[in-house]
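Researcher: Structure prediction, please.
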Amino acid sequence: MIRFGTSGWRAVIADEFNFFNVRRVASALANHIKENTEYGVLSAEYKSFVGKNSLPRLPLVVIGFDGRFLSEDFAREVAGVFALEGIKTILADCDTPTPVVGHAVLAHKAIGGVVITASHNSPQYNGFKWMPFWAGSAPPDVTSDIERRLELIQHDVKVMPFEKALQEAWTESADFKTSYSKHLSSIIDVQMIKKARLKIGVDVMHGAARHYLRPFLEHCGVVVTALHENRDVLYDGHSPEPAPENLSELSALIKKNRLHLGLACDGDADRFGILDSDGGWISANEILALVLEHLVSNRGMKGKIARSVMTSHFVDAVAKSHSLDIRETPVGFKFIGELLRTGQYLLGGEESGGLSIRNHVPDKDGILACLLVAEMVALEKKSIAQLRDRLFKKVGAFHNTRINYHMPHLRERLALEDRLHTKPPLDLAGGSVWRIDESDGFKFILRDGSWLGLRPSGTESSFRIYAEASTPKKLEALVDAGKNLLGKKQ
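Model: Predicted structure follows.
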């Protein structure tokens, strides 16, 4: 059964993710688009969003794809299904980051965008993501409607051959790089980066950022040493996730060449990974707090802050120091994107490496995050660790971690959730539990402000431990408590 998770539908290639099912999903989406464009509430909002004088004559959808096996072929199938349904498409001319597709949706005033991607998941997976006209992830009411329509389509779906769709102008191929790069230049201080004469290492992990991150940094005058810019559908045999265990080569490069910084993106460039000048890993939780401090203190920006429930309270402390309101959301950037759409929020972020800011696409963008970090380092002329320690002195220290445990059996995960709900711990790591948040998983908050989070993954067969404390020793004790609750040996 096909279901959309926190960021679209993902499945194993040649198993559930095959041409038959991709055509079915495209057909269900086409029905959703046509009904809501012509008759639904979405139509009025869309017209208001793009302006009545700018409405396309026919529904228009932007399509992008990552560098996974057959991604471009799946994207062409989607275009062919849409063509027979009377929906025009603009297809990226090469593998393209998800946030770039989002920007193209806005630039072309499209009804939405499709991205064929499984983001950071392992190479055997691919996925189908739908972004409505505001260029953020589709909310649950939209994906539920697509799923409902999909259940009625059990037959094979007809598709217009791609070459015919091109000849009859139902689809066209386009370069999205120029418009996106111009937009980045309007929100990144290019001149500041140029003055700093930075030397940066970049690892795009064979992903779609290969066409974007290094070229833009070089446009900013940065001396870039890049890794893994070739397409590799197997991603060197591991998940294209910018986690510390996958960035050892970038770390060695930084140390060898004495670089200022290491920047990395995942397979579809919506997540980021940051290494400091010593090659050390800087967590996304710390980057979110540092970028917020930079935007407010150095650029004079103001606004509300949004973060997901399992993201560090370090961000809260920085926001509070500037008298900024903060909003907590369930896990999944689509909830943060809904807030960013209002224009009231300066920054939205999540601990898994997602970040976006006001006046950008309301979806996470790893390229933007990397560039903001480069801008911050260029201005401050200090290492990230120095900036973090300075911020700790200002707002207090926050040490956190996330650990994944493979839990393949659904019955085991459900039994664990039931046990945590019916018999929650009242004491953890020598402290009493002050509050329990079950809005998305289980978050046990202690009276001293430290906390332990337990939550099943939305995209993988795993259960995750999240923990945060003011000292490494207290953090270790909370992690041990989390392992005990999961039934894992110390």
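Model: The CA atoms of residues 66 and 95 lie 5 Å apart.
Researcher: Thanks, that helps.
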